[in-house]
Model the fold of this input.
Amino acid sequence: MTDNTILDFFEPFGFCETEIEDGCTALLFETIDNGDYALITDGDGTMPKDLEEEIIFAYYTADGAFSWSVSFEDSHHLLDLLDDHTPTTQLIDIVKKYRDSGDYY
Done:
């Protein structure tokens, strides 16, 4: 599976590809209100290579400080949590609530 398929999968939820460090890329979601953002990476901290591998959703403050993260068995598990109609303004809250429940991968 190509990175484009990963992008196609996440773009409807407001994610885009961004360069992080050392020329690597990840999926980026920026909040609308305060500049905080989230990155989705694989276990190595780079762009997931396919939809079937474990992903890490990591949340950062606007100044780049790590805040929290949660792992998903694969991209499908995250998208099952969100569903097709999740407004992007609620995405972070939904993932954080899932993390806080302690019922995750």
Q: What stands out?
A: The helical segments are 3-10, 75-82, 91-101. The longest strand covers residues 66-72.
